């Protein structure tokens, strides 16, 4: 029945609470009129079914009727409640939300009934049912849910469920009064939950919240699993076991300390290779070779830091007394501290790279374990054991011998057979007698673990707070017993203490017990008496280092011998010689000399001869200013020399004249020697790079500025040495000081310091401009007397023609064929200003060779029969070559190039007259501005361009950049046209552009990187480079100097403030430092020719060309020379192929066809070849290669060996440091195959590259490595030459290399004191054992020592050098054993 359906509770319902037990009497009649319907009534009965034959119902008709039962609304809402009940409201809400019907679970307790609601919802698409957790009250409010009846518990549960999904609505207003009051209780509970971060419990859509929370939990779980995997991976990383100790566990909020390290390349070191390196270090390593002493504050800071890193304070204090800085101190500790006393981060427990885990020789392993038990390095024990043929006794004797002499300069020698005394018993009898004696004396303290071993327990041993330390002295019978005994300490003591105990005991035996036959008792007694004192003060690590580590020095290193100082010349003797006066007068009267004197008298300089002599005599510094052609360069030095001859002081004359260019030095030497009726090499000579023509009677020597600087740099390193090296020089003449080159300013700074100490030394400065004030003030401000002389110029008037005049005059148009008729016949319409302006606009700012040809043709036509040459100024050698080729099409011209790199014979051709019927045309660089004078020039074509040395930030190198010349330079060029007659200057730029040109060029010291200059200053022995350069005529910025010094440290040229041997070599090489470094290492590692060629390519440019419309073809041509090892090696192979054809005298047509087919520039290849020859000459001068070396002798070996390629890649990395990018590979992927899983090459686009300055960078599409999916040689890094920023940041000219190339040849190595690995150049991370970094860092020091040896002995043969072979093996095999 209906009532039974609604009342699902078991048993009769209990009466409602007293407050609502029934209607009051007052309302009884009213309530009786509104009786509930059947579906609102619960009918309770206990009547049993009537049995047949039972009493009829009529018998009960007289009984009173039963009272009406209350309805659910009355029970839940009260007698007057007419609204909806909580169960109904919840059901309606679920229906509206399209959820399933609520499910109620009932629980019975001692206190009553409690019920909970569970909601479900079905996904309309997947039909998947989602079930929420039951809505339960927290324990603090659980009592609210307990009700006396299931009905009330059910409605309570519905009310709480409604609150959970509708708390944000005012639905509580529709609830019965008592449940309305519960809503307020729930609201208080919600506020507490929201405060605790549980607001999600009250979301209107709990199913969506559940999905979001499950997704969040899944993401968190995934992240947790990834973190767990990372931790597990980190546990296998070298040094990770020490992270927890170093990175306090409570400091976990700072993030993952392994971040950035897990993806870093891992470096491993094979055991055999490690043993080889350790052997080399034991023989050759020297700590703090320059004997730098740290200040007390620096020492304290290092001690405090490394003590916190886990080292013993006493060990760090010993290290800082021996080392030069923090890094070397840390390296010293990692080499010298025994392994059991190192911090955990420094000695990872799981490191097994290159080591066989399984022991294949148990006997050997057991012997090594016993030998190393006393603290000896296990690696050293293995080595000594194997060297002694597996004889444990001999190995133990050898170890003791090494220990005894450790820390001293006494060399260990091979153990000799001991000579036994005739009075001694046989060794066996003697041993047994000693054993019996010791057993009787020491009783229970005595034991014999083996027949040839006894052990005595030592008593009352104390180690700090530890009392009665269990310690024993073990004595072993060696092969040379009783002359020798083998001692071992078994105790819970650090290795360095045990070794110190043994060393002191051995010293006692060696000093006091040599004559004793039975010495064991005395040793035991001595040990018992002294053990506690030695434990408390064990001595320094140096005393036991030779056996505590396999890599520490066998003896205390001797101080590095200082290099021999060069012998300085004897000072000048100014003693008059009357015979010289007579001889000089006779020469002056000779007819030939008189003819030259007559010619010289026509020069403007002759008029101020006496002024020059007087100024030089009365001042230390004389400044001579004069226009080009005045004769100052040729005459001034002769005036000075003739004045000395006239006084009989000619024997003391030694005048050194510097010139900025070789051609100037050669030309002036020839001219001055000719004017003095002499030959070059007698009274007048010259010294340039690769050539030297001076004799014992030479009085005037013309040199390049670099030659004099190198003489001063190699003088010994101190200013006194520089002064001494110039002792035989009477006058220094510096020509062309107005150019303000880097070398000239540097030389002025040095000479000013010399003049303070040598009052008799005379300095003459010569300038082509009249701006002498700068130099006069520079020397006068330092208390040095300065005189000056001005020489008037001797030129004819010169008419200027600008571009806006030349175009209508020649009829030139960039877009039409050239006019072949008379230039006067050009139509006036073609000369309109609009047409000229458009033509100028189309020309742009680049050199137009067609315009040069037409202008030259027009000048030749204009001059007609008039004699005289044409001088064309071009910015560089390549432009000269192209111009000469274009002009040779004009048959009436005799075209000659002129630049500093020409051979002397070729340069001298410009001074000779042209063949009959030809007009001489000289195409020159700015070398013809002031350095030389060509007498027959009547017309000058000035492109207005010059190639000036500047710093290129794109590729971080010193390059020649084409720029507009200064107005002062253009004035000098103009003056060349008026030497012999009135002339014309044709300026291929506009008047307006000339006004915008700088007045004069900035001093080079202000516009180029200063690494080379700073290195030269330091090579002279100047320690405070900044202060020295601050005294230059134009001081550079301090930031530029500091940046240069830091770069030198990163390159390895400086070690702190000390000059390395590499730095000394680089200071001598006239090339960019990076190219110089490549060549120095190339000479050492037997790949000099390849290194010189690559350097020449870098100093010129890539020989490949890429036409705009054939880029893909040119790229494929370049790929044909590629082997996947980088762009520079590709360029190298292309040059070698061309050079092989060229040196094989192949027909020029065939060579040019080869170039065209392979998109190679024949001119660029020629330039590279010329640069190579210059580098060979420079290297032969400083002894890196022999002068007889043929620049082409080895360049033909295009098929380089794998070893050469590997080392070339490494050397390229060294040259380009710090231009290095890190390669980041994606996670490995595998594919199934018949042989199992095969690793797939990553896609090129998934490989990422990062550098220090820009973060992520991209390989330029023109690079041969653009599509690379992997790199040979286990490469993990990439060096680059240039970097370009367009839509992305691209790197070009790439060479890939491996981790050991980075360690050996890139920036400094830093050890991470958290044990995570190594840091190279301040940012490149490598995972690996800290000691690997130390070994490689020390090995790099040995390489620098070899460079020093090579400098001292240029003929030193390095082909079998073990250090260099080890370096090559490390690079080839990336640290592993073969």
TrEMBL record:
One Pfam family recorded for the sequence: HA2_C
Domain Helicase C-terminal: 858-1021
Bias kind Basic and acidic residues: ranges: 214-234
Helicase ATP-binding domain: residues covered: 613-788
Keyword terms of this UniProt record: ATP-binding, Helicase, Hydrolase, Nucleotide-binding
Ranges where the record places region Disordered: 1-78, 214-260, 552-573
SUPFAM superfamilies the UniProt entry points to: dsRNA-binding domain-like, P-loop containing nucleoside triphosphate hydrolases, UBA-like, UBC-like
Biased composition (Basic residues): 1-11, 561-570
Claim: Nucleotide-binding is one of the keywords in the record: yes
Residue spans of biased composition, Low complexity class: 54-64
Cellular component aspect of the GO annotation: ribonucleoprotein complex
Molecular-function GO term, any one: hydrolase activity
Name the record gives this protein: DEAD/DEAH box helicase
Origin species: Zalerion maritima
């Amino acid at each position: 029945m209906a009532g039974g359906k609604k009342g699902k509770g078991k048993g009769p319902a209990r009466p409602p609470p007293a407050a609502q037990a029934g209607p009051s009497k007052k309302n009884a009649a009213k309530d009786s009129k509104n009786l509930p319907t059947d579906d609102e009534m619960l009918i309770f009965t206990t009547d049993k079914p009537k049995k047949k034959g039972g009493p009829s119902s009529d018998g009960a008709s007289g009984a009173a009727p039963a009272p009406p039962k209350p309805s659910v609304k009355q029970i839940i809402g009260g007698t007057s409640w007419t609204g909806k009940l909580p169960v109904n409201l919840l059901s309606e809400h679920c229906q509206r939300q399209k959820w399933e019907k609520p499910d109620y679970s009932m629980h019975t307790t001692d206190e009553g009934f409690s019920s909970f609601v569970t909601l479900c919802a079905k996904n309309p698409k997947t039909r998947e049912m989602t079930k929420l957790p039951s809505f339960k009250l927290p324990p603090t409010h659980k009592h609210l849910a307990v009700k006396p009846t299931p009905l009330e518990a059910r409605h309570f549960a519905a009310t709480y469920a409604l609150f959970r999904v509708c708390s944000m609505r005012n639905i509580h207003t529709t609830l019965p009064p008592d449940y309305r009051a519960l809503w307020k209780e729930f609201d208080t509970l919600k506020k507490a939950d929201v405060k605790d971060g549980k607001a999600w419990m009250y979301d209107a859509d709990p199913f969506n919240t559940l999905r979001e929370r499950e997704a969040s939990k899944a993401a968190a779980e995934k992240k947790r699993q990834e973190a767990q995997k990372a931790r597990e991976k980190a546990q296998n990383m070298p040094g990770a076991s020490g992270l927890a100790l170093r990175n306090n566990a409570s400091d976990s909020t700072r993030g993952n300390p392994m971040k950035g390290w897990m993806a870093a390349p891992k470096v491993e070191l094979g055991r055999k290779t490690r043993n080889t390196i350790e052997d080399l270090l034991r023989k050759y390593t020297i700590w703090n070779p320059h004997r730098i002493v740290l200040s007390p504050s620096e020492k304290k800071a290092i001690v405090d830091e490394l003590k916190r890193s886990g080292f013993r304070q006493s060990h760090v204090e010993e290290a800082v007394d021996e080392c030069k800085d923090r890094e070397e101190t840390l390296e010293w500790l990692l080499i010298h501290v025994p392994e059991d006393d190192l911090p955990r981060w420094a000695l990872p427990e799981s490191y097994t790279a290159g080591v066989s885990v399984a022991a294949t020789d148990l006997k050997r392993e057991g012997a090594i374990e016993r030998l190393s038990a006393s603290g000896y390095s296990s690696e050293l024990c293995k080595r000594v054991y194997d060297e002694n043929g597996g004889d444990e006794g001999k190995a133990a004797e050898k170890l003791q011998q090494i220990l005894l002499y450790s820390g001293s300069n006494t060399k260990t020698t091979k153990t000799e057979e001991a000579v036994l005394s005739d009075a001694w018993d046989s060794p066996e009898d003697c041993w047994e007698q000693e054993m019996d004696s010791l057993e009787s004396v020491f009783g229970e303290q005595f034991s014999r673990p083996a027949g040839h071993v006894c052990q005595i327990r030592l008593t009352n041993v104390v180690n700090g707070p530890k009392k009665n330390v269990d310690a024993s002295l073990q004595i072993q019978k060696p092969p040379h017993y009783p002359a020798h005994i083998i001692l071992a300490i078994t105790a819970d003591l650090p290795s360095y203490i045990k070794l110190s105990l043994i060393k002191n005991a051995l010293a006692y035996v060696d000093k006091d017990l040599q004559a004793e036959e039975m010495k064991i008792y005395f040793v035991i007694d001595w040990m018992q008496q002294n053990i506690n004192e030695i434990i408390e003060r064990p001595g320094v690590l140096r005393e036991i280092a030779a056996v505590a580590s396999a890599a520490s020095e066998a003896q205390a290193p001797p101080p590095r011998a200082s290099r021999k100082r060069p012998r300085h010349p004897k000072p000048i003797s100014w003693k008059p010689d009357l015979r010289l006066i007579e001889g000089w007068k006779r020469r002056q009267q000779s007819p030939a000399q008189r003819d030259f004197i007559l010619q010289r008298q026509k020069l403007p300089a002759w008029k101020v001869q006496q002024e020059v002599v007087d100024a030089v005599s009365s001042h230390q510094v004389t400044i001579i200013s004069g226009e080009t052609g005045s004769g100052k360069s040729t005459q001034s030095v002769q005036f000075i020399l003739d004045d000395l001859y006239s006084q009989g002081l000619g024997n003391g004359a030694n005048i050194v004249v510097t010139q900025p260019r070789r051609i100037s030095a050669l030309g002036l030497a020839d001219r001055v020697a000719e004017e003095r009726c002499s030959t070059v090499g007698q009274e007048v000579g010259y010294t340039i790079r690769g050539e030297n023509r001076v004799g014992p009677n030479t009085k005037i020597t013309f040199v390049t500025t670099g030659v004099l600087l190198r003489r001063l740099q190699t003088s010994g390193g101190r200013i006194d040495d520089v002064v001494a090296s110039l002792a035989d020089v009477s006058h220094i003449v510096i020509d062309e000081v107005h150019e303000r080159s880097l070398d000239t300013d540097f030389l002025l700074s040095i000479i000013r310091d010399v003049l303070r100490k040598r009052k008799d030394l005379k300095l003459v400065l010569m300038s082509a401009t009249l701006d002498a004030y700068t130099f006069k003030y520079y020397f006068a401000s330092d208390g040095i007397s300065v005189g000056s002389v001005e020489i008037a110029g001797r030129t004819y008037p010169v008419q200027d023609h600008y571009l806006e005049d030349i175009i209508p005059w020649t009829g030139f148009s960039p877009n039409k064929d050239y006019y072949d008729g008379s230039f006067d016949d050009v139509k006036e319409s073609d000369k309109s200003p609009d047409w000229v302006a458009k033509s100028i606009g189309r020309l742009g700012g680049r050199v137009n060779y067609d315009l040069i040809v037409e202008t030259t043709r027009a000048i030749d036509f204009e001059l007609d029969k008039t004699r005289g040459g044409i001088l064309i100024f071009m910015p560089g050698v390549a432009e000269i070559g192209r111009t000469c080729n274009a002009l040779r099409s004009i048959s009436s011209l005799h075209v000659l190039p002129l630049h500093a790199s020409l051979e002397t014979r070729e340069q001298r051709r410009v001074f000779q007259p042209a063949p009959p019927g030809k007009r001489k045309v000289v195409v020159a660089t700015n070398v013809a501005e002031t350095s030389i004078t060509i007498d027959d020039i009547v017309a000058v074509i000035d492109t207005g361009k010059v190639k000036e040395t500047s710093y290129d930030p794109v590729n971080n190198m010193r390059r020649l950049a084409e720029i507009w010349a200064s107005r002062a330079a253009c004035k000098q060029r103009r003056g060349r046209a008026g030497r012999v007659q009135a002339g014309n200057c044709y300026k291929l730029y506009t008047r307006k552009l000339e006004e915008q040109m700088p007045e004069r060029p900035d001093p080079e010291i202000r516009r180029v990187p200063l690494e080379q200059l700073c290195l030269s200053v330091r090579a002279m022995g100047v320690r405070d480079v900044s202060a020295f350069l601050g005294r230059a005529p134009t001081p550079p910025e301090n930031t530029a100097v500091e940046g240069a010094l830091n770069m030198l440290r990163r390159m390895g040229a400086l070690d702190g403030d000390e000059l390395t041997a590499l730095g000394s070599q680089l200071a001598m090489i006239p090339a960019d430092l990076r190219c110089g470094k490549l060549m120095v290492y190339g000479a050492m590692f037997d790949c000099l020719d390849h290194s010189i060629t690559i350097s020449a390519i870098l100093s010129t440019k890539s020989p490949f060309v890429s036409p705009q419309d054939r880029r893909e073809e040119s790229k494929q041509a370049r790929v044909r020379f590629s082997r996947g090892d980088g762009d520079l090696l590709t360029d190298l192979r292309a040059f070698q192929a061309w050079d092989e054809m060229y040196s094989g005298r192949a027909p020029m047509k065939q060579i040019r066809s080869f170039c065209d087919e392979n998109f190679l520039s024949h001119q660029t290849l020629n330039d590279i070849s010329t640069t190579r020859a210059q580098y060979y000459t420079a290297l032969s001068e400083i002894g890196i290669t022999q002068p007889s070396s043929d620049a082409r002798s080895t360049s033909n070996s295009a098929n380089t060996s794998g070893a050469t390629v590997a080392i070339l890649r490494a050397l390229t990395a060294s040259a380009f440091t710090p231009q290095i990018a890190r390669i980041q590979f994606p996670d490995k992927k595998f594919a199934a195959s018949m042989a199992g899983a095969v690793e797939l090459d990553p896609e090129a686009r998934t490989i990422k590259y990062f550098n220090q300055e820009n973060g992520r960078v991209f390989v330029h599409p023109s690079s041969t490595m653009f599509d690379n999916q992997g790199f040979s040689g286990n490469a993990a890094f990439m060096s680059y030459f240039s970097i370009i920023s367009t839509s992305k940041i691209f790197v070009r000219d790439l060479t890939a290399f491996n981790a050991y190339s980075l360690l050996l040849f890139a920036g400094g190595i830093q050890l991470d004191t958290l044990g995570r690995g190594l840091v190279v150049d301040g940012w490149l991370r490598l995972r690996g054992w800290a000691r690997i970094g130390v070994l490689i860092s020390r090995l790099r020091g040995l390489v620098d020592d070899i460079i020093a040896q090579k400098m001292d002995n240029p003929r030193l043969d390095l082909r079998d050098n073990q250090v260099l072979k080890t370096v090559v093996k490390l690079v080839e095999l990336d640290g592993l054993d073969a």
